């Protein structure tokens, strides 16, 4: 029994809304779940009969969508209809950092949340529970509440004035393992004031989550807990990345340091992998929100503390590109670099805030010609992120390298195409396939002296060195120049 909830509408069919609603539908066959979006192309892709064409890549997601779609899981652009039918509405729209106006570069842009709230206010009927799912700055619930309680409904035939309860239910899923995280969450957090609304949402989760994992808080604590969780996780990565630089300078090895500190149960072993710098749509945005809020509430020391985590991350990304320039004799002009991985982490096609974007741009600025490979990211997406079009292949093959201009880039389907005549290979995303490369074969194709830069520590360094290549990996103070 799911309380009164029989019909759910989720506004926003993105990386959060899509997987969350798919898993919910799979566990609640008695609830009709409608995921709506203003983006027609996205909805078309969610409805594609070929499950390989879903708009986001997440391991395990295709089979869940295949099982539920058309039964109790539907994807649609008809917001009005599905909002009006819903007993519960999840707001799961994007909240990127503002690019202009007050708070630009720090505060979240709430225009999509606001327009969703206005759509709910216009079309909802009867009593509706509105659930904040997007990552939002603290006190956004108040904004939503005000819009819902003061806007005029658009449906004139309504016999009763619509009423609302607002809950905060932040999502803690991590891309690449979203289905697993949703199936077996560490906790589900529900913030709110009205016990009936909290109970209704808790009962939905109780279909697959143990009761003791469902935490209830007030609405502001719930909103702040989400920002704080992401800030703490990001802080660990900046901490270990800062130590990686010290390891390289002193001859220590960051993997050994991480293992040693991670076995202290007070510290724990997760989120201690040094990499090229954290990316993803949440970490930077959420920390900058904390920074903005702290300054707003007159707490500059708190703001400075958290801002340092983002500064360190930016510095660390630059450190990787500077190091490559230095190792390649101080110039990248006309040199070919094979880039392995563009997504912000493995098992996703998401590139938002990926370290690869800044690092590739830096290398292009130095004149490098980049051949970029990623098993899931399209050339179209890379072009959007780099702000320049790729150089096309000529009749299926790549042109002579001498015909490329400094800073040009191409996307490649085969790693061997990327490696041919390359001066360096730079690994940026920890895709499993990159840990199993045949280095003897690759070394034969590269121009010597050639380098392999492993920013994720997934390559078997012995095999690279045996193949006669120079090797650098993040946080390792050993010197592997041949
Ligand atoms: C994060 C939070 O983990 C999740 O709870 C929240 O809901 C959304 O934000 P996500 O951004 O999907 O999830 O991925 P996450 O696994 O946290 O990785 C973020 C970035 O940190 C990636 O670029 C990843 O490569 C990097 N990372 C992660 C490291 O560099 N080292 C680590 O040890 C862990
Ligand atoms: P997230 O990672 O938070 O899920 P995404 O950008 O992947 O972010 O997805 C957010 C989705 O919300 C997008 O597909 C966007 O088109 C959709 N969206 C934004 N505003 C609205 C709105 N007012 N009504 C419906 N959908 C919206």
3D architecture notes:
By secondary structure, the chain is α/β, with parallel strands linked by helices. It has two domains: 7-217, Rossmann fold; 218-482, Rossmann fold (3-Layer(aba) Sandwich). It is built from 17 helices and 14 strands. The chain has helices at residues 17-27, 40-46, 61-68, 79-85, 111-123, 140-150, 178-183, 195-205, 219-250, 254-262, 283-296, 300-327, 355-365, 379-386, 415-419, 439-445, 461-466; strands spanning 7-11, 32-36, 73-76, 88-91, 127-132, 163-168, 188-192, 214-217, 336-340, 369-373, 409-411, 424-427, 451-454, 470-473. An eight-stranded mixed beta sheet has the order 3-2-1-4-5-6-7-8, sandwiched between helices. Strands 11-10-9-12-13-14 form a six-stranded parallel beta sheet. α8 (195-205) links the parallel β7 (188-192) and β8 (214-217). α11 (283-296) packs antiparallel against α12. 48% of the residues are buried. The mean pLDDT is 94. Bound molecules: uridine-5'-diphosphate-xylopyranose (UDX) and adenosine-5'-diphosphate. Adenosine-5'-diphosphate is lined by residues 11-17, 36-39, 42, 79, 92-94, 112, 115-116, 119, 134, 281.
List keywords for this structure.
alpha/beta, single chain, 2 domains, 13% strand, binds adenosine-5'-diphosphate, 6-stranded parallel beta sheet, Rossmann fold, 14 strands
Helices and strands in order, then pairings?
Elements (H helix, E strand, L loop, with lengths): L6 E5 L5 H11 L4 E5 L3 H7 L14 H8 L4 E4 L2 H7 L2 E4 L19 H13 L3 E6 L7 H11 L12 E6 L9 H6 L4 E5 L2 H11 L8 E4 L1 H32 L3 H9 L20 H14 L3 H28 L8 E5 L14 H11 L3 E5 L5 H8 L22 E3 L3 H5 L4 E4 L11 H7 L5 E4 L6 H6 L3 E4 L9
The structure holds uridine-5'-diphosphate-xylopyranose and adenosine-5'-diphosphate.
The site of uridine-5'-diphosphate-xylopyranose has 19 residues, from helix 9.
